[in-house]
Amino acid sequence: MTVLIDKTKLDKNLKAVKSNPAVPENYVPHPISDAWSRDDVEALFALPFMDVILKAQSVHREHHAPNSVQMSQLLSIKTGGCAEDCGYCNQSAHFDTGLKAEKLIGMNAVLDAAHKAKTGGAGRFCMGAAWREPKERDMDALCDMVSRVKDMGLETCMTLGMLSPSKAQRLSDAGLDYYNHNIDTSPEDYDRVISTRTFEDRLHTLNIVRDSGMKVCCGGIVGMGEQAEDRIGLLLTLANLNPAPESVPINALVPVPGTPLGDSEPVHPIDFARIIAVARIMMPKSYVRLSAGRETMTDEAQALCFLAGANSIFVGETLLTTDNPSETEDRALFTRLGIVSE
Ligand code: SAM
Ligand code: DTB
Ligand code: SF4
Question: Bridge partners of 179?
Answer without folding.
Answer: 158, 216
